[in-house]
Amino acid sequence: MSAPPLLRVxxxxxxxxxxxxxxxxxxxxxxxxxxxxxxxNGAGKSTVIKTIIGLVKVISGSIELAGTDITxxxxxxxxxxxxxxxxxxxxxxxxxxxxENLEMGAFLQKDARRRKQMVESVLxxxxxxxxxxxxxxxxxSGGEQQMLAIGRALMMTPQLVMLDEPSLGLSPKYMDIIxxxxxxxxxxxxxLLMVEQNAxxxxxxxxxxxxxxxxxxxxxxxxxALLNNEDVRRMYLGG
Length: 239
Ligand SMILES: Nc1ncnc2c1ncn2[C@@H]1O[C@H](COP(=O)(O)OP(=O)(O)OP(=O)(O)O)[C@@H](O)[C@H]1O
Ligand SMILES: [Mg+2]
Hints:
Blueprint: E1 7-16, E2 19-29, E3 34-38, H1 45-52, E4 57-65, E5 68-69, E6 83-86, H2 98-105, H3 112-125, H4 127-131, H5 142-154, E7 160-164, H6 172-187, E8 192-195, H7 199-205, E9 208-213, E10 216-222, H8 223-228, H9 230-236
Parallel strand pairs: 3-8, 3-9, 6-7, 7-8
Antiparallel strand pairs: 1-2, 1-4, 4-5, 9-10
């Protein structure tokens, strides 16, 4: 029998004020999976992530994390519940050093010694960041900033890490590095939900994927099956 889901989204309707953006979204993520969320612009991919962390209002339906109902939690509770979030646009504190940025990611950890251990363990996973730990984040390349944003999300040892467009705007070289990094995080036991414009690449690394369109589920299957699905290829992967 397969593991029970870490995240389960059921019949989720969500809205920005009067404008409904999600219509009956169903989705689940098992522990240790990479799940890709793909679909055209405006499909509702970012909205799904934002609704999970309480940034968008739930109209109806439910969100469960490890069997606990987290529907409509206040956003500041998401990290406490074990949800790491890497927003679109590799947001880092430009004037703070790499190390300081990571420390900010562990703001819930009051014990300074424990916080330092967490920084060290994240730096170990990102040798390039370790080399530049005293550099201001604003001076890093785009790919390095994305690694820093991911590293910061890992600081709270989250149960689930959600990434919005991690490869957007990166050079092909850094795109490769980021996708490989996501695979190695999965191999270490992390559970990842990734929204990607780069649908083909995302489905190559994903265990499973969901295709959204106009705020609704359109297809869902294993990454490999979606990559080989004629309709998905034609509509979303450019033939
Ligand atoms: N802050 C907002 N206020 C009102 N409507 C919004 C807001 N953000 C998104 N929307 C609407 O919600 C729908 C889903 O948008 P969302 O950003 O989730 O799409 P997406 O799949 O992430 O697209 P993209 O690939 O462009 O990032 C769209 O119709 C969009 O116009
Ligand atoms: Mg988006």
